[in-house]
Amino acid sequence: MSESNSVLIGRKPVMNYVLACITLFHGGAKEVNIKARGRAISRAVDVVEIVRRRFLPDVNVQEINIGTEQLKAEGSNASSNISTIEITLTR
Amino acid sequence: MSESNSVLIGRKPVMNYVLACITLFHGGAKEVNIKARGRAISRAVDVVEIVRRRFLPDVNVQEINIGTEQLKAEGSNASSNISTIEITLTR
Lengths: 91, 91
Fold this sequence. Notes:
The structure is a homodimer. Chain A is α+β, with helices and mostly antiparallel strands. Helices cover 32% and strands 38% of the residues of chain A. Chain A has helices spanning 14-26, 40-55; strands spanning 6-8, 31-37, 60-72, 79-90. The first copy, chain A, has a four-stranded mixed sheet, covered by helices on one side. In chain A, strand 3 (60-72) and strand 4 form a beta hairpin. The first copy, chain A, is elongated.
């Protein structure tokens, strides 16, 4: 699977990411990975639900993985943990 | 599985829910369900990650499901959709 089929969820409005997913599927993608960290995790779930319930009913959630990443603050040795989610959609 | 092994994630500090999960497992539960809606979804993932990485390394994520619930505002016919997550932990 090429990495170009990933959508990284940030702070933009949910519909921006919904559109990104739909564009990938309409471009022929069979699989799209939705990734998010921290507070954006809820938005990632919103994106998936809107894509499959409102726009592309033939898209399925194949896999959901959660994890933890260590973030290092610049110029310091302190690191903090942030939760991550990765949702794989297939058509 | 009895419903008493569910932890519903709300707006309290993350550690409150972490403690609730640990208490259930220490009380003999083999399975604990973590549920959250809307903005609390990110917090649910934080709870799971803290439980299994910091406190109970023998706990595994067995299943993650996401979905949508319809909420009806009181005294109105309008309804809005809210995303949900349910994470099943087993020991």
